Amino acid sequence: MRRFIIAATFLAISGLVCLRTPIIVLGADQAPRVLNGIDILRRQNFAPLAGKRVGLVTNHTGLAADGTSTIDLLLNSGVCKLVALFSPEHGIRGIMDSKVSLSVDETTGLPIYSLYGDTRRPTPEMLRGIDALVYDIQDVGARFYTYSTTMAYCMEEAAKAGIPYYLLDRPNPIGGTLVEGPILDADKTSFIGYMPLPVRHGMTLGELARYINAERKLGADLRVIAMQGWRRSYFFYDTDQLWVNPSPNMRSILEAILYPGVCLLEATNVSVGRGTDRPFEIVGAPWIEPRRFAAALNAARVPGVKYVPLYFTPNASTNQGMKCGGVQLILTNPERLNSVLFGMTLISVLHKLYPDKFEIAKVLRLLGNERALERLKAGRPPIEILKAGDPDLRRFMTRRQKALIYGRTPNPKEGNR
After folding, report:
1. Does any domain span residue 410?
2. DSSP for 161-192?
3. Is residue 412 part of a domain?
4. Residues 81 and 204 in one domain
5. Taking a C-beta distance cutoff of 8 angstroms, is the pair 299, 332 a contact?
């Protein structure tokens, strides 16, 4: 009950975009329950990086517990020499929604190489003169969130260059026990799907890096600086950390929990709330009758979520400037929600109610599993489709065991619930 009350309170609070200024200096009695990799590296007086020329892959989420940026900590460490910065999608400040260009950091004078522009991986020229590549970015725990692919591409290039790759670990904000959804087909890998993984993989980026390094046989000299205090059962509201929006449309932990399901609609003609003040909390289209849609969704009784009918008009992205009928998503229990089941239920209901309007074929871009999509088209129940994929999911759960760093993991024999 205590955790549920904390969750309900936290879900009502939107995050703040933080720049490179300290937020607050914490006393020992104010320290968060979970310390990130950068906090542990700081306690080690940056010894693992001693004498090295460092390249840092980061953005505005790379912060220590007291709000000091990882950039400033490495720059002023007196132990290593920070020589270059690398920016993922959305830029070093996390506010861009377009191509990121090469630039110079106004404070340090360091080059900021873009990993979301002409190239999406560090080139040999970018890595020239670098002795270690360090990664510190907050992820959200979904296969198609691009920071994890950037992490993997950087690890590949560090391995090719023969330099160690340090990953400063951070929480998976939607927990480490729930593993959900179809596995990505091997022939559908891309920047939004690095390798065959379930939609919700239940790993921290440090664990995911270990898994990728082993499964892809990259041979990277990977060194994960692990967190202190994180447990697999923790959602972000259990960590006592300050929420920082990882990207412009990921504005709260509520949206992060809903994201693995709602984002399955991203490539279709249904708005997922971009261009509103509630991205990933509302979905709709001009041809949807909201009460009918809400009634069908509530009748499906997916645990942990309810639906309220509404109209909205997005000012950007899909259906820009058009009045959309749809639903607001009400999260009633984050720990009971199978986010992928919920997302596939959205797809199933849309296809049933609006077969001539809803572009179900475009779901494949994010769902990434041809067999699951064909079964949705055929009208099979989403829970049945997910359970049909349980053998693949169980094999994944077994393979990932060696990559896990933190505590208890679910039984590998468990599947979608």
Report:
1. no
2. HT--EEEE----TT-SS--BSPPPPGGG-BTT
3. no
4. yes
5. no
